[in-house]
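can u pls check wat happens w/ magnesium ion
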Amino acid sequence: MQKIRIAVFFRDITSPLEKEYPADYQGREDASHFYYLCKTLKKLGYEVIHYNLDVENVSSLRDVKFDLAFNLCDDGFDNKAYLEPHVPAIFDIYNIKYTGSNYYTLATCLDKIRTKEILLFHGIRTARFQTFSTGNEILNKSLKFPLIVKPAKEDASIGLRFDSVVQNERELRKKVRDVVRRYDQDALVEEYIDGREINIGIVGSKDPVILPVAEICFDNFPENMPKILTYDAKWDKETFEYKNTRNKCPTQVDPAIEMEMKEMALKAFKLMGCQDYARIDIRLDSNNVPYILEVNPNPDLSVDAGFSHMIKAAGKTYTDLIEMIIDSAVERYNIAEEPAAEFIGKKVKAKVSVRA
Ligand SMILES: Nc1ncnc2c1ncn2[C@@H]1O[C@H](COP(=O)(O)OP(=O)(O)OP(=O)(O)O)[C@@H](O)[C@H]1O
Ligand SMILES: [Mg+2]
């Protein structure tokens, strides 16, 4: 059968990442992983085009025919996190089939507070929390310090610094006001879960596969340094935090706890309506009790990101991961039963190109 044609949608590195949050853009402007993905798809035998989606060319989607869009816009339309759900929403409008979760799942998971409410409703453990919109709210005294303050609707550790972990009410209010002002959204205040950090990767849709458990190790962190993945720990290669955080996969966890984490992750994956792939972030407390921090339906798929470590630990390659994601989407949409679509990409002018 003829291989399907794939259009890879990605964020333009020249988009205004910088303007959005001046303190949180460095390190994320590298698009090399996008080209690597295109190369991988070609290696797999697919015909590949790439599409740099923006306001100017969005309507040209009407004229392009391919079989499947690979959504790599994990920073959102125009690199704005709040426009992340809009990318699959645009695909829906143009009746385009795509990899990954739909707009509804992306929007709900982007909202960490709403996600926590859903998890709690379904009996899945997540850190106790309170929402702050101004910083003047009365603090729920049953919350135990230290607490951690995060923007309610961001990802990529945007807004996460060491001073996000607060020890008392004065520090809390200062940080909440800072988050509300800087990121123009509610602050999520959670109990700080002081223990190991675990990631669970899941691939598939009908019969999702749980990948080997990964751990973020905070090597050499001094006693007084919160063991958290700050923005710098994720993106700034020059920092102590970056150099001393390590992704270990597979990692050793007590089998009963491993089973519990996998079960809660899979339940969360299904509850939130994730499709094709997702990463669930968990912390274990000092008694090894797992708490879900968040569900990432659109995690980083770079060749050096956590997901790739997990797939390697499963004895597979990055190429296998990409094939699994496509197979999952193809199965969901039943694409194989349809004749290959006619490719009329020449009609599209703006920023669409077929790479040899
Ligand atoms: N309640 C908590 N207790 C302990 N550490 C936490 C807690 N919440 C967040 N962290 C730390 O902060 C990091 C970032 O938090 P979170 O995963 O919620 O943010 P994010 O910006 O959505 O990240 P991602 O890049 O995974 O999308 C976590 O990986 C963890 O190290
Ligand atoms: Mg996370």
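The mean pLDDT is 90.
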